[in-house]
Amino acid sequence: MIRLAESPRLVLPTVEVRTSYLVGEQVDCLLEGRPTEWLDAASADFAEFVAARRGVLPRWGVPSTLFWYVSGEYYLGTLVVRHELTADLAEAGGHIGYHVVPPWRGQGHATRMLTAGLAECRRLGLDRVLLTCETDNERSRRAILSNGGVADGRRRGEDRFWIELGSDAAA
Ligand SMILES: CC(C)(COP(=O)(O)OP(=O)(O)OC[C@H]1O[C@@H](n2cnc3c(N)ncnc32)[C@H](O)[C@@H]1OP(=O)(O)O)[C@@H](O)C(=O)NCCC(=O)NCCS
């Protein structure tokens, strides 16, 4: 467990975590065998990269908001809220996507980041949200179940879960 001076919180993308973001995302890509070229633009002009990701943006065919999970200078992960579902997203993808970058995994951050993401969904007026995860993604499944996920079948190789957003969703 890495000690943090401040409790992490969800914020809009910010230039304050530049080094930590670039390092964390690079390590994530390398470990997963994904290309890292997209980080070149971020590295060259991080302010522009950040500005292009703030606010409500059309992604996946729906209005979406990107949040970063941040503690001081440290970037821990990303959570995206899709404000609506398309027919595709209703099958697989759902309202929320997230990842925690490797240095911060296994410390409960995804579970708490999702709790904070659910509070953002409630602020956006959603009363229940769909989450999906690959059938062998035990860590994500556990984070979803810890946040009240109720299983609703399997489509396209992903398990689906609904979470009801009661008035007590944590901030
Ligand atoms: C899935 C992911 C977000 C989990 O992040 P994390 O911060 O490590 O998750 P947490 O620490 O909150 O742990 C969640 C659960 O997994 C368990 N877990 C964590 N690390 C584990 C490991 N190495 N092996 C087995 N279980 C593990 C935790 O014990 C916890 O379960 P519990 O609450 O029942 O004890 C992260 O691995 C990730 O970003 N993966 C790649 C992207 C991804 O899969 N995103 C989700 C798409 S649906």
UniProtKB/TrEMBL annotation:
Positions of the N-acetyltransferase domain: 15-170
Xref: PANTHER family: ACETYLTRANSFERASE
Classification via InterPro entries: Acyl_CoA_acyltransferase (IPR016181), GNAT_dom (IPR000182)
Listed PROSITE patterns: GNAT
CDD domains in alphabetical order: NAT_SF
Protein name, UniProt field: GNAT family N-acetyltransferase
Source species of the chain: Amycolatopsis halotolerans
Annotated Gene3D superfamilies: 3.40.630.30
Protein origin, superkingdom: Bacteria
